[in-house]
Design a protein that fits this description.
The protein is of the alpha+beta class. It is built from 23 helices and five strands. The chain folds into two domains: about 200 residues, 2-Layer Sandwich (Heat Shock Protein 90), CATH 3.30.565.10; about 270 residues, Hypothetical protein af1432. It has a five-stranded antiparallel β-sheet with strand order 1-2-3-5-4. Helix 14 packs across helix 21 and helix 15 packs across helix 21. The protein is elongated and about 85 Å long. The two termini are about 45 Å apart. About 45% of the residues are buried. Bound molecules: fe (ii) ion (FE2) (2 copies). The site of one fe (ii) ion has 5 residues, from helix 14.
Length: about 500
């Protein structure tokens, strides 16, 4: 596929000119192109918050279109006419066995066939209209099944309700449709704005994205529990709050602050531990509290107080989530490394702290409902959804990023930290003044996700990469290798 320039395309669409391109297979390149095109389109109409929903939905729609074409190609290699009712079941069984699960195996045949998917966007009077057309005619039975599922999906209140019913559905298409409908409802786009049309020579999926959205709120019991949970989380202990006031006051003396820390042994040991950690490298080992205060400075001490207090509250209240904290430590290290590498000297510690606390909402979510959280994680991985937050929103009604934000606000965290926690999966939603920090945390989290095989490189927002000047896959991999090596060297 020839890749048209996204900025020119966006300008064209804004002028009201239609834009389209075709592909035979949903390669990473195509997905990446669609994502970055829509990141720009949504940013230009102030709807960037729709990006994750949109990319998830459009991926499902495109996969269905490619799958429909692949089915025809596969049937013809078997010598079965797809309209032959008697042999249809046989063909489908073979298709499932040979193609589903290793879809890339059919890519060469698709390429050599006349089957194509055409993707088009046009700005209409009320919003954007996206059409995904495949040049194979859907069978009446397939169409009936899809309509039935769509109809049913409109009535589900949340994803968990739908999950049991459709998970082991025969053709595996049910989950995608339910997901699409629920995401559309939840985002305010509305389920009625998605249609499938059976043409004479083709099948068309139409998605209209209105400029005016009607948000629909998922209210689940788990969501209520989670909100009550956030409400019940204790505030920081009085001595920590007092310390924060002291740190913020330029008149305070080091002795005064050190004495205050020293009366709390747990806090003292946490402060020493973190002062000696990678985030605040000072070159020499810090042994005492006054040294720590002197060397790392009041601003950093304040950050350390925040991180240690937040963690100790969560650890006391919930079982210890070693894995999450280990992940956060690594993200913090990477985020700091990214800030250093791109000479963002003002935000190095902020990026570190943002990384340390970015997933705190996950702990609250996991503690409230482990079962749902695990199901979400499975689906996100299976369906290559870029972030778990959209799934959390339609299953639970709130994402771990938003839970984190609420908690961070409750604890009176500084704005950059609230933003880093809230937007670590949706960096383009961050305000410009916090973007350096948020982007560092976001990218660090992606890199760690790649290591644990939850993410792939092409999930990364182009805008983040271009801000850091990472313009090629090799530059991306180099940065990753560099961070990984220094992290491992430190661990030894
Ligand atoms: Fe996260
Ligand atoms: Fe994370």
């Amino acid at each position: 596929m020839a890749i048209p320039n996204t900025s020119e395309t966006v300008a064209k669409i804004k002028r009201g000119e239609p834009f389209s391109f075709s592909f035979h297979y949903l390669s990473e390149e195509v997905v990446r192109y669609i994502n970055s095109l829509f990141a720009k389109i949504f940013a230009s109409v102030d709807q960037i918050f729709l990006l994750d929903t949109f990319t998830t939905v459009i991926r499902e729609i495109c996969i269905n279109a490619v799958k429909a074409n692949a089915k025809r190609v596969f049937f013809s290699t078997l010598g079965i006419d797809i309209g032959d009712r008697q042999r249809y079941a046989e063909g489908i069984a073979q298709f499932k066995k040979n193609v589903i699960g290793h879809f890339e195996s059919i890519e060469p045949e698709l390429k050599n066939s006349d089957y194509r998917v055409n993707f088009s966007v046009k700005k209409g009077p009320n919003g954007l209209v996206i059409q995904v057309l495949n040049n194979s005619v859907i069978q009446p039975e397939e169409m009936a099944r899809i309509s039935m599922r769509m109809e049913k999906a409109r009535h589900y209140e949340d994803f968990t309700e739908a999950y049991e019913e459709i998970y082991d559905d025969a053709e595996g298409a049910g989950l995608g449709i339910v997901l699409t409908i629920l995401l559309l409802k939840n985002s305010g786009i509305g389920a009625e704005n998605f249609k499938m049309i059976r043409g004479e020579k083709d099948t068309r999926s139409l998605l209209a994205i209105p400029f005016e959205l009607r948000p629909w709120e998922v209210t689940t019991t788990i969501k209520k529990q989670i909100l009550a949970e956030v409400d019940g989380i204790p505030t920081f202990p009085e001595n920590v709050m007092e310390l924060q006031r002291l740190c913020a006051n330029p008149e305070s003396s080091i002795t005064e602050i050190s004495d205050k820390i020293a009366v709390d042994p747990a806090l003292s040991s946490d402060v020493l531990k973190l002062s000696n950690s990678a985030g605040f490298i000072s070159g020499k080992r810090i042994e005492t509290i006054p040294e720590a205060v002197k060397i790392i400075g009041l601003k950093n001490l304040n950050a350390i107080l925040l991180a240690t207090s937040a963690r100790s509250i969560l650890d006391k209240r919930y079982s210890r989530f070693e894995q999450i904290w280990a992940h956060c430590n690594k993200v913090a290290f990477y985020a700091r490394g990214i800030a250093l590498k791109y000479r963002l000297s003002k935000i190095v510690e902020n990026a570190f702290l943002g990384g340390l606390l970015h997933d705190l909402g996950k702990i609250i979510m996991l503690s409230t409902d482990l079962g749902t959280t695990n199901k979400i994680a499975d689906i996100v991985k299976d369906r290559k959804i870029r972030t778990s937050t959209v799934m959390e929103e339609i299953s639970v009604g709130i994402s771990h990023a938003s839970i984190g934000r609420l908690t961070a606000e409750k604890w009176g965290f500084p704005d950059y930290l609230v933003e880093s926690i809230h937007n670590h999966h949706a960096p383009l939603n961050a305000e410009e003044k916090h973007r350096d920090t948020v982007f560092c945390v976001y990218l660090a989290n992606i890199l760690c996700g790649i290591e644990s095989r939850r993410y792939q490189m092409y999930y990364t927002e182009d805008e983040v990469l271009s801000r850091f000047g990472i313009l090629s896959d090799s530059a991306f991999n180099e940065l990753h290798a560099e961070l990984k090596n220094s992290f491992e060297a430190r661990a030894e």
